[in-house]
């Protein structure tokens, strides 16, 4: 089980302990970011832990980028999923897109291709004197309105 940030250590240890209960030995391994990325893209992993921020706010940014056959990012290929993701990306009606992405996410979950078991919390502001900071859901903080009093 590979991961690149210390924020994953407690979770990785808990997952390894749960696997051990059913007789599966898992070795959590923290890797330096460049090695982690090289191994990730080279498909040199069995279980991979990572945080996925959505820089665009569009479901296609993560789902269409990672879970299509053409992406070759997970070792998984499902033409039905590809069709749903392509249809969703082509729609302009938000309700139609949401319905198609919900179907796609159900396939991803049921086939255990990807799961999102936790929300990683990252501290950007540490003092009470910092004002105007609003956390971002895409892990890209905006400090343009921040002031220190």
Automatic annotation (TrEMBL):
Keywords: Signal, Transport. PANTHER family: PERIPLASMIC BINDING COMPONENT OF ABC TRANSPORTER, PERIPLASMIC OLIGOPEPTIDE-BINDING PROTEIN-RELATED. It comes from the Bacteria. GO terms for cellular component: cell envelope. It is found in: Cell envelope. Gene3D superfamilies: Dipeptide-binding Protein, Domain 3 (3.10.105.10), Periplasmic binding protein-like II (3.40.190.10). GO terms for biological process: peptide transport. This is Solute-binding protein family 5 domain-containing protein. Belongs to the bacterial solute-binding protein 5 family. It comes from Actinomadura physcomitrii. The keyword Chloroplast does not apply. GO terms for molecular function: peptide transmembrane transporter activity.
